[in-house]
Amino acid sequence: MGAAVxxxxxxxxxxxxxxxxxxxxxxxxxxGHSVVLAGRRRETLEETAGERPGAVVVExxxxxxxxxxxxxxTVRERFGxxxxxxxxxxxxxxxASVDEIEDDAWRxxxxxxxxxxxxxxREAARMMKEQxxxxxxxxxxxxxxxxxxxxxSVAYTVSKHAISGLTASLNLDLxxxxxxxxxxxxxxxxxxxxxxxxxxxxxxxxSVRPEPTIDVTHVxxxxxxxxxxxxxxxxPTVTVMAREMPLAGRG
Length: 251
Hints:
alpha/beta; 7 helices; oxidoreductase activity; SDR_fam; SDR family oxidoreductase; KR_dom
């Protein structure tokens, strides 16, 4: 069912070419919203968009503040406002512990997952504070790793703990401007990034065991529900995960 006219929103999704970003974009387009699909590869963004009405494809690199400013400049020119940002772009990086991580890999993960999220949140917040009516919603893609690390995942784990700090700061600094922020922590949604978990996931005790996964549509459904809420409702954090995945201590 499409969104009612007064429920229509302009939504920016980064990393919309695959995985959670793709599924969420398609769900929100199906709900009748206008969705700006952002990412580095136009071909994958266009695959996500298909012929769906309301889809706008914009090539952007979240690690570049100039590229992100241009992205939101396009949003402003096309729609005049932004109602929701889903900060979804991210990379896992190599499997490495603190004594193994290389400089380039560390920078890539932190630049994409943390600086990229900050760049997009900054531009979205500026628009949301200036537009009439003001306000909006920012949703940050966290992870179970924002709470408990996987073995040999120092860069990714640090980046997702930083997302928790970013989310908390956004909620504090922006709540007086009608802007609500959510961190969605996802555990084992079945995407290309988690392909190996269903067969051979490294555990905290050094063993390798399969882990359960969930269909990514359940994550998209959760985000769609948050998007549908009025702005006087805040959802600071939400976790969506496979019921039987090892969480506490990673098993």
